[in-house]
Write a structure and sequence with these properties.
Blueprint: E1 2-6, H1 10-21, E2 25-30, E3 40-43, E4 59-62, H2 71-79, H3 82-88, E5 96-100, E6 112-115, H4 125-141, E7 145-150, E8 152-154, H5 160-167, E9 174-177, E10 179-181, H6 182-192, E11 201-204, E12 210-211, H7 212-222, E13 236-242, H8 244-249, H9 258-264
Parallel strand pairs: 1-2, 1-4, 2-3, 4-5, 5-7, 6-13, 7-11, 8-10, 9-13
Antiparallel strand pairs: 9-12
Length: 265
């Protein structure tokens, strides 16, 4: 299978290597020069994508990252690219387009459970931009599009929560958090290529939503710091993710609980 990956950051590079190991011919496109063994790289701005000398592609992965975290850059990255990508691939026998979005499209913020049947809706401007992008890419690719919505990404050398555990002065809310290991994101994206009929969307999370205050206290105890006393009447924020389609897919998580990785770090 000929696979095109748009965006060659950490996730795109790791995915390219896994797909190549499975025998697929992989081409990556990014704005900056990169060198891969056995993988073709094209240096282009995908806002002006041309694939005249490229092979005919069967699958496309869209793994884009805005250079800044504001609405303008999200629109430029996710919305303004939809039409030029669609135009560039008109002559290709596309079977599936995988579009990486985010759980930010869900505005639930009182500890509610969400799953793959929950309708994306939020007042958050960046989340609204991502919803608009999902709708636009869906309009172009229709039944060929699969949307992936990962929760918070982490990896073995992540230090954010350790810093948070040390820097937090008090706990004022009971905030729910959700995580997925980057290797499981890459692993699932690779696994998708083996499915005959992927679903239209997948939430990706490790099925272990945890209160941030609980995580902070675990890490503080690990580092011989005094844990906080958590009042039972604190307001709940955040959401809890039940990734039903992920469970039904047959993919087995390599990292089923992110706290196991943090405890070892």
């Amino acid at each position: 299978m000929n696979v095109l990956i748009l965006g060659c950051g950490q996730t795109g590079q790791a995915l390219a290597q896994q797909l190549n190991q499975q025998g697929h011919a992989v081409t990556c496109v990014s704005r900056h020069d990169k060198t891969f063994a056995a993988i073709t790289h094209i240096t282009q701005d995908i806002h002006h994508l041309t694939l005249d000398s490229a092979p005919l592609f069967d699958w496309v992965y869209v793994i884009l990252s805005p250079s800044q975290r504001n609405v303008e850059h999200y629109q430029h990255t996710f919305i303004d690219t939809a039409q030029p990508v669609f135009q560039a691939l008109q002559s290709h026998p596309i079977q599936r387009v995988i579009f990486i979005s985010s759980t930010r499209v869900y505005g639930e913020n009182s500890g509610q459970w969400i799953d793959d049947d929950t309708r994306p809706y939020t007042h958050d401007p960046i989340g609204q931009c991502l919803i608009a992008a999902e709708q636009l890419w869906s309009a172009y690719w229709q039944e060929k599009l699969t949307i992936i919505r990962p929760s918070g990404l982490y990896q073995a050398n992540s230090t954010y929560l350790h810093r948070l555990a040390h820097d937090t002065q008090q706990i004022t809310v009971r905030h729910w958090t959700n995580r997925i290991h980057r290797q499981d994101l890459v692993g699932f994206l690779t696994f998708l290529s083996t499915l005959k009929q992927p679903k239209t969307s997948y939430l990706l999370s490790d099925q272990q939503p945890m209160l941030q205050s609980q995580i902070i206290n675990i890490l503080r105890e690990q580092d011989n710091l005094t844990p906080f006393i958590i009042a039972a009447d604190l307001p709940e924020t955040g959401k809890r993710i039940n990734a039903i389609h992920l469970l039904q897919s047959g993919y087995s998580l390599k990292y089923p609980c992110f706290m196991d990785t943090y405890k070892k770090a």
